[in-house]
Structures are given as C-alpha cells and as structure tokens.
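Service request form, structural biology core

Requester: graduate student, group of Dr. S.
Request type: structure prediction, single chain
Budget code: on file
Notes: please return the result as structure tokens.

Sequence provided:
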Amino acid sequence: MTPIILDGQSLTPERVMEVAVAHRKVALCGEAGERVRRCREMVEGLVADGKVVYGVSTGFGKFSDVHISPQDTAKLQINLIRSHACAVGNALPEPTVRALMLLRANALAKGYSGIRPVTLQLLIDCINHEVHPVVPEQGSLGASGDLAPLSHLALVLMGEGEAFYQGERLPGAEALARAGLEPIALQAKEGLALINGTQIMTSIGTLTYVKALRLAKIADAIASLTLESLRGIPEAFAEEVHLARPYPEQIGVAKNLRALLRGSRLTTRQGEIRVQDAYSLRCLPQVHGATRQVLAYAQDKLAIEINSATDNPLLFLEDGQVISGGNFHGQPIAFAMDFLKIGMSELANIAERRTERLVNPALSGGLPSFLSHDPGLASGLMITQYVSASLVSENKVLAHPASVDSIPSSANQEDHVSMGTTAARHAVQVVDNAAKVLAIELICAAEAAEFVGIDGLAPATRVLYAKLRALVPPVTEDRSTSGDIEKTAAALLSGEWLEAVEAVAGPLF
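Core staff response, request fulfilled:
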C-alpha cells in the first residue's frame, strides 16, 4: 500500500485512523520538505545574527525576558524537553500515540516551525518503524501546547525516555537502536517546535470522533431493531414530517430509519396497536439527528486543527517575520470535545430509555417481564438495564465541560488555558460508555425479537441480529452477561457490523 503523503494541508480523520490503527506508512511531500529546509535556514540565520526570538534566544514562559547566549541555544532545547517531561498517569494507547506522532509531523510539514529536516524525518521514521514513545496521559493544560505529554515524545527522539517496540517497553535509545534508527541532538528552536502544539488533545479527539460517528450510525440500526421488537410505528419517520423541520441531520437520520426498516413485517401503523409511540422511539430522528449535528461540529474543528501550525513562534518565509502568537491554545478543540461529550451522552440516554421499554412489562406491549424465559425464577435481562442506567449517569458527570475551567500557570504569564486535553480524555470515556449502553440495548432488542418473531425482521435489522447472535447466544437461562456486553461494545466500535448493515440498507447518512 502506498504511504500517506504529509503536506500539512490535506490530512483527514479517516487517514489518521489508517495510520493509527491500520499502521499505514507515511512520507513527507517533496514540496513540504523544501519549505521545512528553507524555514530551518531562516532559524539558523536568526541565531547567527543574534536576533531576539522567543524560545531561541530567550527562555520560556515567564523566562521569556531572560537572554540566552548563542552557544547555549542547543542546551536550552534539551533542558526544555527534560524539564517538561513530567506527565503522569497511564500511558496513552498505541493508536493514540501513532496519531499524535502523525499530527505533529503534519504540523511540522507546514514549514512554519523551523525544525531541521533530519529531526522531522526521524519522527516519520519512528511512525513507520513502529517505535511508539511512552506518553503519560495526564498533565496538559491545553494551552502553550500539550507541553508535558509531548515532551515524552521528544525525549525518545533524543534517545531518552521510554518507548514500546515490538511489544516491549524499552529505554528510548534501545528502542531506536532495535529499529535501526539514530537519536538526534536537538538544535535551536527544535524542542519548542516538537512540544508547542495541540496534538495530544487532537489525536485523542480525532480517534474518538471516528468511533462516535460509527456509534451514531449503528445506533439507528439498533433503535430500528428495538422499534420492531416493540411493534413500533415508522410513520413518524416519513420524509414530509422532517422536511417540515429541515435540519439536514434530522432528515438524514429519518432516511436511515426508513432504509433500515424497509421490508419489516413487525412494524405497525397508527391506530393498529397504539396511536403513537413514546418519545424514545418516535423522536429518534430529532434526538439522533441532534447528536449528528454535534459530531458535524466536532469534525469541522478537527479537520482544521489536524492541518494547522500550532506552535510558537511561527516563522514566515515570505516576509522573513518571526511572530509570537497563540495558535497553541486549545480552546477550539476543548469546546468541540465538550460538545461531543454532550451529544454522545444524549445518544446513550435515549438508548437506555429504549432498553427500559424492552424489559419493563408495563411498557413493552406484552413481552415477558425483563425478557425472562422463566419470570420470577429467572431474572432474565433485568440488571442489564441497571448497568445501562449507571453508565448514562456516569456520562452526565463526565459531560460537565472541562473548557469552562482555567488555572493560570508560569507565574501568570500563561493566565488562561483551555483544559482541552482533559475534555478529550473524558470524551473517550463517554464514547466507551455509550458503546456499552448501545450494546445492552442491542442484546435486549435481539432477545425481544425472538419473542415476537425474527422471521418478520427487516433485511437490514436481520443482518444486525445475526451478527450479534454469532457473538452472543440467547439468554434462555440466567448467566453472567458482562462479557457479552463488553464484546458487543467492542464490535460496535470497530465499525464491522455497521459495514454489514450498510451492505443491505445502503450507505447510512
């Protein structure tokens, strides 16, 4: 497979996933490489001329007024990385680390940062040779860049820190050596160029967005199976209803539902069993569609951020300017991740309400209590709804916005920060919880479908039912379902079941 070419302008979330998860290789665009080379020459000229440039001939943060002599510019960068590498907590997962390496390389490829081509190439080589730095997940304020976590990435390029290579956690120098790579000695501006950016929050956010979009689409299919099992009324999804309130995402979800339910013999018409369904069924396009609006917002901001220069200062070749700015500030991604948390929390909230309708005999329209095959003696799927309720309650806490907090740092020089990385880390938890909530709904919906007759399922929902049954057998007698829920959630996040459903229903919005 040909490598993905980095030019600093055209990376997409889907391409990020290819590198992060499928381990696709990357290469630097020739034109971008030339710009990086010229920008580096500009840095070397500034050093030779003794110009005052933040982070090159000055200290950092509150130390920006401290002059650094030309002979100490390299030492300054090494000290920067060593002192800033103080992140804590669990190591970020391998896909996230691969994504952040890719995003940092893409930002540097824009040619505004002044890094040497050899240093950028080592970063790319580490991606391609699968040398994955150990990057602790906690410690970023989300402004001045993701300084602490990104410093652990830079340490490995220096032959320090730790990295995973071929499944082993090794000293950074040893990991590089085993991969046939040589560490670099940082020169002027390079340490700052490597860590002054938003790549931690953006890498986490990009991978989380892709998973969230998969869940949002498969949620339409799961809800369709639930609607069939409850003998619901799909007339609420009629096109004319949604054209009367023309949110594109609402219209798109209604179209999904019509495609997913096409051919069903279990759905009913208005007045046949009931006049109208409860909101958790009837308002699917409105609620799921609103979540899709949120995801569209997040996608738009991520698409910009992954192709942005986010360090400081920036060098502009066209007019020779060096400008100290604030592109490292993570506020746009902080807001996007907080918004994503809210949208996915609501996707889980309404799914839990549908699960309640499936297991509650007062709401299920004649299904056995808690879908038990021996009510009373066997509890059936009663407690799965408890678990679902617990997860959605936890999401409500996690959905509290991190972006409304700010704690000043660097002696109040850096007096407003975004907490965007915290928002992104919480978004991961919200999406993982939502996957489990949807897994519980699917397990219950499949069980309910067996009581009403799987022969009547629509072709698309029948595929989803079959995929689940290949993984999770019916609950004909009480057993632990923890493993069933976890396996189902993982399958939903992978996107494989979504592809199978789309092969029958057509591409979903």
